[in-house]
Design a protein that fits this description.
The structure holds two protein chains of two kinds. In chain A, helix 1 packs antiparallel against helix 2 and helix 2 runs antiparallel to helix 3. By secondary structure, chain A is mostly helical. Chain A is globular, with a radius of gyration of 21 Å. Chain A contains six helices and no strands. Chain A has one domain: Up-down Bundle (Four Helix Bundle (Hemerythrin (Met), subunit A)). Chain B is mainly alpha-helical. Chain B has a domain of 66 residues: Helix Hairpins. Chain B has three helices and no strands. In chain B, helix 1 packs antiparallel against helix 2 and helix 2 runs antiparallel to helix 3. Classes of the chains: A mainly alpha, B mainly alpha.
Chain lengths: 171, 101
């Protein structure tokens, strides 16, 4: 069952990613990315992270991608029409090298017998809201508080950038 | 065939690769930002897979941290892009070479 779900969600995730890169229109790209994120939520669910799967749908596929779509549709015209051209064709072999290396590496992994299996099914309650929240507000409390500072800084930064030509209060 | 950690790592590697190639090939700054989000998503899968391997939900906590980082990055990146668009009427990175000149 886990195998079936893994192959289903994994292939959909890869499909979404590839289609996002291939599509020329930014709106269509964003919609394919939403599709990819929903598939990733499925992968999290297969891995036992039910809470993560819910957050992936709410935060990524919901909030972040809505922000992206909002901006894309706000900046109409040249942004919506797609790209005149992609990267200069002469540079293509250059960027093909690292992907080729990675693919060869992955092929080696899959061929060998050194697969690391999971030790049985996850313990009951693994990845549940209770367990994640206990860690979040216990062992990782400092990181949890620090992340709120990152969000605050991002909020202030986005406001400062978005003010445009107008004078900033501290100038 | 049993699904092992290696399967998840290979999947994450391929997703990361897709995002990386997209980031380099595409010229629309908005799509480039979306490719970064896809790469972050691949990293999250690795976190969750290792969390499952060790039976410790600590990896899940850091995936949640990653969500916050991704949200901040998207907010600031999009704010900068909107500002660039207001001034230059384009988000094509080929047309934005001020720093290069």
């Amino acid at each position: 069952m886990e195998g079936l779900l893994f192959w289903f969600c994994g292939s959909l995730l890869l499909l979404g990613g590839v289609m996002m890169v291939v599509q020329r229109s930014a709106v269509v790209s964003a919609l394919w990315l939403v599709f990819a994120f929903l598939s990733a939520a499925g992968i999290f669910a297969v891995l036992g992270g039910t809470f993560l799967a819910v957050m992936q749908v709410l935060v990524y596929a919901g909030a972040i991608m809505v922000l992206f779509l909002f901006v894309i549709m706000m900046l109409q015209g040249p942004v919506m029409d797609g790209e005149r051209r992609l990267m200069h064709p002469a540079l293509w072999p250059l960027i093909a090298a690292p992907p080729a290396a990675v693919l060869i590496m992955l092929a080696g992994f899959l061929r060998g017998d050194r697969m690391v299996g999971f030790a049985g099914a996850p313990a009951p309650g693994f990845g549940s809201v209770v367990q994640v929240a206990t860690l979040l507000l216990g062992r990782y409390l400092l990181a949890f508080e620090l992340i709120s500072i990152i969000l605050l800084v991002a909020l202030i930064g986005a406001l400062a950038v978005g003010r445009g030509e107008r004078k900033l209060p501290w100038k | 065939m049993e699904i092992t950690l290696t399967h998840y790592l290979v999947l994450a590697g391929l997703v990361f690769l897709t995002g990386m190639v997209g980031f380099v090939v595409r010229r629309n700054a908005l799509v480039m930002l979306m490719c970064i989000e896809l790469m972050l998503c691949a990293v999250n899968i690795v976190f969750a897979a290792f969390s499952r391997l060790h039976g410790d939900a600590g990896g899940h906590v850091f995936v949640l941290m990653n969500f916050a980082v991704a949200a901040s990055e998207a907010a600031i990146g999009l704010a900068i892009l909107v500002e660039i668009y207001r001034r230059r009427r384009t988000v094509n990175v080929d047309d934005l070479k001020t720093l290069m000149e």
